[in-house]
Design brief:
The chain is α+β, with helices and mostly antiparallel strands. It is built from eleven helices and 18 strands. The protein folds into four domains: 29 residues; 175 residues, no CATH class; 128 residues, 3-Layer(aba) Sandwich (Aminopeptidase); 59 residues, no CATH class.
Length: 403
Protein backbone atom coordinates (compact mmCIF):
# COMPACT_ATOMS: atom_id res chain seq x y z
CA UNK A 1 0.00 0.00 0.00
CA UNK A 2 2.85 2.32 0.88
CA UNK A 3 4.65 1.43 -2.33
CA UNK A 4 1.53 2.10 -4.38
CA UNK A 5 1.23 5.53 -2.77
CA UNK A 6 4.80 6.32 -3.71
CA UNK A 7 4.23 5.17 -7.28
CA UNK A 8 1.14 7.32 -7.56
CA UNK A 9 2.98 10.33 -6.26
CA UNK A 10 5.85 9.65 -8.63
CA UNK A 11 3.41 9.26 -11.52
CA UNK A 12 1.65 12.48 -10.65
CA UNK A 13 4.97 14.30 -10.58
CA UNK A 14 5.92 12.84 -13.95
CA UNK A 15 2.56 13.83 -15.45
CA UNK A 16 2.83 17.34 -14.02
CA UNK A 17 6.36 17.65 -15.37
CA UNK A 18 5.22 16.49 -18.80
CA UNK A 19 2.36 18.99 -18.72
CA UNK A 20 4.85 21.71 -17.88
CA UNK A 21 7.00 20.52 -20.76
CA UNK A 22 4.07 20.73 -23.19
CA UNK A 23 3.13 24.17 -21.87
CA UNK A 24 6.69 25.38 -22.30
CA UNK A 25 6.78 24.10 -25.86
CA UNK A 26 3.47 25.80 -26.68
CA UNK A 27 4.64 29.07 -25.19
CA UNK A 28 7.94 28.88 -27.03
CA UNK A 29 6.08 28.23 -30.26
CA UNK A 30 3.96 31.30 -29.63
CA UNK A 31 7.00 33.36 -28.56
CA UNK A 32 5.52 33.93 -25.10
CA UNK A 33 8.70 33.16 -23.17
CA UNK A 34 10.25 36.59 -22.85
CA UNK A 35 13.89 36.20 -21.87
CA UNK A 36 15.51 39.36 -23.19
CA UNK A 37 14.29 42.94 -23.48
CA UNK A 38 15.52 46.43 -24.25
CA UNK A 39 17.64 48.16 -21.63
CA UNK A 40 15.36 50.66 -19.86
CA UNK A 41 16.84 53.19 -17.41
CA UNK A 42 14.97 55.08 -14.68
CA UNK A 43 14.70 58.89 -14.83
CA UNK A 44 17.06 59.13 -11.84
CA UNK A 45 19.60 56.89 -13.56
CA UNK A 46 19.37 58.97 -16.75
CA UNK A 47 19.92 62.19 -14.80
CA UNK A 48 23.07 60.80 -13.19
CA UNK A 49 24.49 59.54 -16.49
CA UNK A 50 23.87 62.87 -18.21
CA UNK A 51 26.03 64.54 -15.56
CA UNK A 52 28.97 62.18 -16.17
CA UNK A 53 31.48 63.09 -18.88
CA UNK A 54 32.44 59.53 -19.80
CA UNK A 55 32.16 57.27 -22.86
CA UNK A 56 30.43 54.50 -20.86
CA UNK A 57 27.78 56.96 -19.67
CA UNK A 58 27.15 58.01 -23.27
CA UNK A 59 26.82 54.40 -24.42
CA UNK A 60 24.36 53.53 -21.65
CA UNK A 61 22.18 56.49 -22.62
CA UNK A 62 22.34 55.42 -26.28
CA UNK A 63 21.25 51.89 -25.36
CA UNK A 64 18.33 53.26 -23.38
CA UNK A 65 17.13 55.27 -26.37
CA UNK A 66 17.73 52.69 -29.06
CA UNK A 67 18.57 49.13 -28.06
CA UNK A 68 17.63 45.69 -29.29
CA UNK A 69 15.72 43.30 -27.00
CA UNK A 70 18.86 41.39 -26.07
CA UNK A 71 19.37 42.16 -22.39
CA UNK A 72 18.54 39.72 -19.61
CA UNK A 73 18.15 42.61 -17.14
CA UNK A 74 16.25 45.86 -17.57
CA UNK A 75 14.45 48.72 -15.76
CA UNK A 76 17.72 49.78 -14.16
CA UNK A 77 17.59 52.22 -11.25
CA UNK A 78 19.91 53.56 -8.55
CA UNK A 79 20.54 51.18 -5.66
CA UNK A 80 20.47 51.68 -1.90
CA UNK A 81 24.16 52.60 -1.87
CA UNK A 82 26.04 54.98 -4.22
CA UNK A 83 28.03 52.12 -5.77
CA UNK A 84 24.98 49.94 -6.48
CA UNK A 85 22.28 49.76 -9.15
CA UNK A 86 19.02 47.81 -9.02
CA UNK A 87 17.30 45.94 -11.84
CA UNK A 88 14.71 43.32 -12.71
CA UNK A 89 15.31 40.14 -14.70
CA UNK A 90 13.74 40.53 -18.15
CA UNK A 91 11.89 37.24 -17.87
CA UNK A 92 10.02 38.57 -14.82
CA UNK A 93 8.62 41.65 -16.54
CA UNK A 94 5.69 39.91 -18.35
CA UNK A 95 4.25 38.95 -14.95
CA UNK A 96 3.98 42.62 -14.02
CA UNK A 97 2.34 44.17 -17.07
CA UNK A 98 -1.18 45.55 -16.80
CA UNK A 99 -3.88 42.87 -17.06
CA UNK A 100 -5.75 44.73 -19.79
CA UNK A 101 -2.71 44.38 -22.02
CA UNK A 102 -2.66 40.61 -21.66
CA UNK A 103 -4.70 38.57 -24.14
CA UNK A 104 -5.61 35.77 -21.80
CA UNK A 105 -5.37 34.60 -18.20
CA UNK A 106 -2.16 34.25 -16.27
CA UNK A 107 -2.40 31.42 -13.73
CA UNK A 108 -0.29 31.96 -10.66
CA UNK A 109 1.05 29.14 -8.48
CA UNK A 110 0.68 30.10 -4.83
CA UNK A 111 2.05 28.01 -1.99
CA UNK A 112 -0.89 28.03 0.42
CA UNK A 113 1.30 27.19 3.37
CA UNK A 114 3.66 30.19 3.24
CA UNK A 115 1.59 32.28 0.80
CA UNK A 116 4.52 32.66 -1.55
CA UNK A 117 4.33 33.09 -5.29
CA UNK A 118 5.88 30.08 -7.04
CA UNK A 119 5.53 31.00 -10.71
CA UNK A 120 2.76 30.44 -13.20
CA UNK A 121 1.75 30.06 -16.82
CA UNK A 122 -0.58 31.55 -19.44
CA UNK A 123 -3.63 29.53 -20.47
CA UNK A 124 -3.39 28.22 -24.00
CA UNK A 125 -6.20 29.58 -26.16
CA UNK A 126 -6.42 28.90 -29.88
CA UNK A 127 -6.59 32.62 -30.66
CA UNK A 128 -4.07 33.49 -27.94
CA UNK A 129 -1.64 36.32 -28.65
CA UNK A 130 1.66 37.24 -27.15
CA UNK A 131 0.85 39.68 -24.31
CA UNK A 132 3.71 41.82 -25.56
CA UNK A 133 2.09 42.27 -28.97
CA UNK A 134 -0.66 44.85 -29.49
CA UNK A 135 -3.48 44.40 -31.96
CA UNK A 136 -1.58 46.38 -34.58
CA UNK A 137 1.23 43.79 -34.37
CA UNK A 138 3.63 46.23 -32.72
CA UNK A 139 5.55 45.14 -29.64
CA UNK A 140 4.35 46.95 -26.51
CA UNK A 141 6.51 50.02 -26.08
CA UNK A 142 8.48 49.83 -22.84
CA UNK A 143 8.37 53.63 -22.84
CA UNK A 144 4.59 53.39 -22.48
CA UNK A 145 3.32 55.84 -19.80
CA UNK A 146 2.38 52.97 -17.49
CA UNK A 147 6.08 52.15 -17.04
CA UNK A 148 7.09 55.71 -16.19
CA UNK A 149 5.42 55.70 -12.79
CA UNK A 150 7.87 54.93 -9.98
CA UNK A 151 5.07 52.95 -8.34
CA UNK A 152 4.72 50.53 -11.28
CA UNK A 153 5.59 46.97 -10.18
CA UNK A 154 8.56 46.81 -12.58
CA UNK A 155 10.29 49.34 -10.31
CA UNK A 156 9.21 47.78 -7.00
CA UNK A 157 9.00 43.99 -7.39
CA UNK A 158 11.49 41.23 -8.16
CA UNK A 159 14.32 43.76 -7.77
CA UNK A 160 17.95 42.79 -7.33
CA UNK A 161 21.08 44.88 -6.81
CA UNK A 162 24.57 44.70 -8.27
CA UNK A 163 27.77 46.74 -8.01
CA UNK A 164 27.96 49.36 -10.75
CA UNK A 165 31.28 47.94 -12.01
CA UNK A 166 29.81 44.44 -12.39
CA UNK A 167 26.76 45.93 -14.07
CA UNK A 168 28.96 47.56 -16.71
CA UNK A 169 30.74 44.26 -17.34
CA UNK A 170 27.41 42.49 -17.63
CA UNK A 171 26.11 44.96 -20.21
CA UNK A 172 29.25 45.57 -22.25
CA UNK A 173 31.40 42.52 -21.57
CA UNK A 174 35.04 43.33 -22.27
CA UNK A 175 34.33 46.29 -24.53
CA UNK A 176 35.95 48.67 -22.06
CA UNK A 177 39.26 48.15 -20.19
CA UNK A 178 39.22 47.85 -16.44
CA UNK A 179 41.47 50.88 -16.05
CA UNK A 180 43.95 53.03 -17.92
CA UNK A 181 46.72 55.33 -16.81
CA UNK A 182 45.69 58.95 -16.82
CA UNK A 183 48.78 59.72 -18.88
CA UNK A 184 47.44 57.46 -21.64
CA UNK A 185 44.35 59.61 -22.13
CA UNK A 186 44.46 62.04 -25.02
CA UNK A 187 43.99 65.65 -24.02
CA UNK A 188 40.27 66.49 -24.00
CA UNK A 189 39.19 62.92 -24.73
CA UNK A 190 36.52 61.31 -22.59
CA UNK A 191 37.76 58.44 -20.41
CA UNK A 192 36.64 54.96 -21.46
CA UNK A 193 37.74 52.66 -18.64
CA UNK A 194 35.47 51.01 -16.06
CA UNK A 195 37.39 52.19 -12.98
CA UNK A 196 37.12 55.89 -13.81
CA UNK A 197 33.42 55.49 -14.66
CA UNK A 198 32.70 53.78 -11.34
CA UNK A 199 34.45 56.57 -9.43
CA UNK A 200 32.60 59.27 -11.36
CA UNK A 201 29.28 57.45 -10.98
CA UNK A 202 29.62 57.13 -7.19
CA UNK A 203 30.65 60.76 -6.81
CA UNK A 204 27.76 61.98 -8.95
CA UNK A 205 25.19 59.83 -7.13
CA UNK A 206 26.41 61.11 -3.75
CA UNK A 207 26.28 64.68 -5.01
CA UNK A 208 22.75 64.42 -6.44
CA UNK A 209 20.99 61.94 -4.17
CA UNK A 210 19.26 62.35 -0.87
CA UNK A 211 22.01 62.07 1.67
CA UNK A 212 22.16 61.00 5.30
CA UNK A 213 24.56 62.77 7.68
CA UNK A 214 25.13 62.18 11.39
CA UNK A 215 25.65 65.35 13.43
CA UNK A 216 26.16 66.12 17.12
CA UNK A 217 26.92 68.96 19.55
CA UNK A 218 25.88 72.44 18.46
CA UNK A 219 24.92 71.12 15.02
CA UNK A 220 21.87 69.47 16.57
CA UNK A 221 20.58 72.91 17.56
CA UNK A 222 21.24 74.21 14.06
CA UNK A 223 19.31 71.45 12.25
CA UNK A 224 16.38 71.56 14.66
CA UNK A 225 15.71 75.12 13.49
CA UNK A 226 12.88 75.24 10.92
CA UNK A 227 14.80 77.86 8.95
CA UNK A 228 16.99 74.97 7.80
CA UNK A 229 14.08 72.79 6.63
CA UNK A 230 13.66 72.31 2.89
CA UNK A 231 9.91 72.46 3.40
CA UNK A 232 7.74 72.84 6.46
CA UNK A 233 5.47 69.83 5.96
CA UNK A 234 4.81 66.43 7.45
CA UNK A 235 5.85 65.51 10.98
CA UNK A 236 9.00 67.61 10.53
CA UNK A 237 6.96 70.75 9.90
CA UNK A 238 4.64 69.84 12.77
CA UNK A 239 7.38 69.47 15.39
CA UNK A 240 6.94 71.62 18.51
CA UNK A 241 10.73 71.95 18.82
CA UNK A 242 11.36 73.52 15.39
CA UNK A 243 11.37 77.17 16.45
CA UNK A 244 14.62 79.13 16.64
CA UNK A 245 13.90 80.49 20.12
CA UNK A 246 13.80 76.91 21.45
CA UNK A 247 17.44 76.19 20.59
CA UNK A 248 18.30 77.04 24.23
CA UNK A 249 16.39 73.90 25.23
CA UNK A 250 18.95 71.61 23.58
CA UNK A 251 21.94 71.90 25.93
CA UNK A 252 21.24 68.37 27.16
CA UNK A 253 22.10 67.26 23.60
CA UNK A 254 25.02 69.56 22.80
CA UNK A 255 26.78 68.94 26.14
CA UNK A 256 26.56 65.15 25.73
CA UNK A 257 27.84 64.74 22.18
CA UNK A 258 29.38 61.36 23.06
CA UNK A 259 25.94 59.97 23.89
CA UNK A 260 23.47 61.67 21.57
CA UNK A 261 23.66 62.35 17.84
CA UNK A 262 21.13 63.23 15.18
CA UNK A 263 20.64 61.58 11.80
CA UNK A 264 19.58 64.16 9.22
CA UNK A 265 18.47 63.69 5.62
CA UNK A 266 19.28 66.19 2.88
CA UNK A 267 17.10 66.34 -0.26
CA UNK A 268 18.46 65.66 -3.73
CA UNK A 269 20.94 68.29 -4.96
CA UNK A 270 20.59 70.29 -1.72
CA UNK A 271 23.00 70.21 1.22
CA UNK A 272 22.01 73.31 3.22
CA UNK A 273 18.48 72.10 4.05
CA UNK A 274 17.01 68.93 5.52
CA UNK A 275 13.84 66.92 4.93
CA UNK A 276 14.14 64.63 7.94
CA UNK A 277 15.79 64.10 11.31
CA UNK A 278 15.92 61.55 14.14
CA UNK A 279 17.87 61.52 17.41
CA UNK A 280 20.26 58.60 17.85
CA UNK A 281 21.20 57.53 21.38
CA UNK A 282 24.30 55.53 22.35
CA UNK A 283 22.87 53.20 24.97
CA UNK A 284 24.43 51.93 28.17
CA UNK A 285 21.59 49.46 28.46
CA UNK A 286 21.42 47.35 26.34
CA UNK A 287 25.17 47.89 26.38
CA UNK A 288 26.85 48.72 23.09
CA UNK A 289 23.61 49.32 21.16
CA UNK A 290 22.25 52.43 19.48
CA UNK A 291 18.63 53.52 19.41
CA UNK A 292 17.11 55.69 16.67
CA UNK A 293 14.34 57.73 18.25
CA UNK A 294 11.17 59.03 16.57
CA UNK A 295 11.60 59.96 12.90
CA UNK A 296 10.46 63.39 11.73
CA UNK A 297 10.15 63.85 7.96
CA UNK A 298 8.70 66.36 5.51
CA UNK A 299 7.54 63.43 3.33
CA UNK A 300 5.97 60.33 4.90
CA UNK A 301 7.70 58.10 2.35
CA UNK A 302 11.13 59.10 3.68
CA UNK A 303 10.44 57.33 6.99
CA UNK A 304 11.26 54.12 5.12
CA UNK A 305 14.73 55.46 4.26
CA UNK A 306 15.47 56.15 7.93
CA UNK A 307 14.29 52.69 8.96
CA UNK A 308 16.38 51.00 6.27
CA UNK A 309 19.39 53.04 7.37
CA UNK A 310 18.85 51.92 10.98
CA UNK A 311 18.57 48.30 9.84
CA UNK A 312 21.87 48.50 7.95
CA UNK A 313 23.54 49.98 11.04
CA UNK A 314 21.96 47.44 13.39
CA UNK A 315 20.27 50.20 15.42
CA UNK A 316 17.17 49.65 17.51
CA UNK A 317 14.23 51.73 16.28
CA UNK A 318 10.59 52.44 17.13
CA UNK A 319 7.91 50.13 15.74
CA UNK A 320 5.65 53.15 15.23
CA UNK A 321 6.77 56.70 14.54
CA UNK A 322 4.59 58.38 17.14
CA UNK A 323 4.81 59.89 20.60
CA UNK A 324 5.29 57.65 23.62
CA UNK A 325 7.78 55.58 25.56
CA UNK A 326 5.45 52.57 25.68
CA UNK A 327 5.78 51.85 21.94
CA UNK A 328 7.62 48.66 21.08
CA UNK A 329 11.20 48.74 19.88
CA UNK A 330 12.38 46.65 16.93
CA UNK A 331 15.77 44.95 16.97
CA UNK A 332 16.93 44.44 13.35
CA UNK A 333 19.36 41.74 14.45
CA UNK A 334 16.48 39.34 15.12
CA UNK A 335 13.46 41.28 13.77
CA UNK A 336 11.77 41.08 17.17
CA UNK A 337 9.42 43.82 18.35
CA UNK A 338 9.26 44.16 22.10
CA UNK A 339 9.24 46.54 25.05
CA UNK A 340 12.88 47.19 25.85
CA UNK A 341 14.27 49.09 28.82
CA UNK A 342 16.84 51.55 27.47
CA UNK A 343 19.28 53.63 29.50
CA UNK A 344 21.73 56.37 28.55
CA UNK A 345 24.13 57.67 31.19
CA UNK A 346 24.64 61.38 30.52
CA UNK A 347 26.81 63.82 32.46
CA UNK A 348 24.98 64.61 35.72
CA UNK A 349 23.66 68.12 35.34
CA UNK A 350 20.60 70.24 35.90
CA UNK A 351 19.68 72.45 32.95
CA UNK A 352 17.78 75.72 32.83
CA UNK A 353 15.67 74.37 29.98
CA UNK A 354 14.81 70.95 28.61
CA UNK A 355 13.50 69.76 25.24
CA UNK A 356 10.41 67.69 24.67
CA UNK A 357 11.51 64.05 24.47
CA UNK A 358 9.43 61.45 22.63
CA UNK A 359 10.85 58.25 24.08
CA UNK A 360 13.79 58.74 26.47
CA UNK A 361 11.68 61.07 28.59
CA UNK A 362 12.78 60.29 32.18
CA UNK A 363 15.93 62.08 33.38
CA UNK A 364 17.75 62.12 36.69
CA UNK A 365 19.84 65.31 36.91
CA UNK A 366 21.68 63.96 39.98
CA UNK A 367 22.91 60.75 38.35
CA UNK A 368 22.67 61.71 34.65
CA UNK A 369 20.56 58.65 33.88
CA UNK A 370 18.07 58.98 31.01
CA UNK A 371 15.59 56.18 30.34
CA UNK A 372 12.34 55.21 28.67
CA UNK A 373 11.26 52.85 31.45
CA UNK A 374 8.38 54.18 33.53
CA UNK A 375 8.38 51.03 35.70
CA UNK A 376 12.05 51.50 36.63
CA UNK A 377 11.55 55.21 37.39
CA UNK A 378 8.41 54.56 39.44
CA UNK A 379 10.17 52.02 41.67
CA UNK A 380 13.29 54.18 41.94
CA UNK A 381 11.39 57.31 43.00
CA UNK A 382 9.36 55.41 45.63
CA UNK A 383 12.50 53.83 47.05
CA UNK A 384 14.80 56.87 47.04
CA UNK A 385 12.28 59.63 47.90
CA UNK A 386 14.92 62.25 46.96
CA UNK A 387 17.15 63.01 43.99
CA UNK A 388 14.25 61.92 41.86
CA UNK A 389 13.73 61.51 38.13
CA UNK A 390 11.96 64.25 36.21
CA UNK A 391 9.78 63.90 33.12
CA UNK A 392 10.73 65.79 29.95
CA UNK A 393 7.46 66.19 28.08
CA UNK A 394 6.99 69.94 28.01
CA UNK A 395 7.23 72.04 24.84
CA UNK A 396 8.03 75.18 26.84
CA UNK A 397 11.40 74.12 28.25
CA UNK A 398 10.07 72.95 31.63
CA UNK A 399 9.89 69.55 33.30
CA UNK A 400 7.39 67.78 35.51
CA UNK A 401 7.29 65.07 38.12
CA UNK A 402 7.78 61.66 36.52
CA UNK A 403 5.04 60.07 38.64
Amino acid sequence: MIILKKINIFAMKKIQTFQDYLTDKILEKMNLKIKELELILSPKMIKILKDINHKIADDLLDLHLDSEPKFKITFVDLGDEPDMVSFIQSNKVPELIEFDLVHGTYNRYINDKDKEYKGGHYDYISMYKNPWIKDDDHIIDLFDPQFKSKDHPVWTKFRSEIKIGRFIKRIFGNKYPDNVRRSDLSSGKKPEDVESFVNMFIATVEENSKKFVIVNGEDIKYWYNQENYFKNTGTLGGSCMKYKEKSKYFDIYSKNDDKVQMLILHPEDVRDKIIGRALVWKLDEPEGRYFMDRIYTANDSDEYMFIEYAKRKGWLYKSSQSIGNEINTIDPKNDKSDTIKMVVNLKPNGYDYYPYLDTMRYYNPYTGMLTNSYEFVYEYNIKEKSKLFIKLTSDSGNYSSSL
